[in-house]
C-alpha cells in the first residue's frame, strides 16, 4: 500500500515536472516524509528545498506562455521521468525505493500523455491561461495531499507516544 504514494506523485510529475520535487523536498526538510523512506539526504537540505520551490514556481508561470513547449517533447519527458523517479523513490519505503522510482517514472509518462490530450481539448474551449491555472491547482493540491498522506503514518506514530 505504501507504494501508492509513489504512483500518485509520479502522476503529478506527468502534469507538472517540478511540483513533485518541490513537495517532496519541502516534506523532507520539515521531517514529514514517511519513516524509513527512500529519499536521498540531499532532499532535506534547506537550499535544495528553496531551489525546488523556485523551479516549480517558474514552471507554473512559464506554462501559461504561448511559447511553452508541449509536455510530451523529449526534454519535457526526460524531466518528468527524472522527477517521477526521485519523488517515487522518496515516498517509497527504503527497501522498495527502486520499485517506487520505477512506478513514479511510469506514472509520469502515462499521465503526461493523458493530461496533454485533456489540456489540448480544454485550451481549444477555454484558453491557455485558465486551463493552466486549473491544472496548476490540481497538481499543487494533489502533491500537497500526497505528501501529507504519506507522512501521516509517521505523525500518527509520534502522537501515540
Would you write up a description of this structure?
The protein is mainly α and 161 residues long. The protein has helices spanning 4-15, 19-29, 46-62, 74-91, 97-126, 128-160. The protein contains six helices and no strands. It starts with a helix and ends with a helix. Residues 156-161 have low confidence and may be disordered.
Quickly count the helices.
Answer: 6
Strand content: under 5%
Instruction: Give the termini separation.
Output: 24 Å
| Largest beta-sheet characterization | none
Shape descriptor reads globular
Order of helices and strands: HHHHHH
Counting copies of identical and different chains, the oligomeric state is single chain
Number of strands: 0
Helix content: over 70%
Low-confidence stretches: 156-161
Mean pLDDT: 90
Derived structural class: mainly alpha
Radius of gyration: 15 Å
Task: Give the secondary structure arrangement, pairings included.
Layout: H1 4-15, H2 19-29, H3 46-62, H4 74-91, H5 97-126, H6 128-160
What labels would you give this structure?
6 helices, globular, mainly alpha, 161 residues, disordered C terminus
Compact overview of the structure:
The protein has 161 residues and is mainly α.
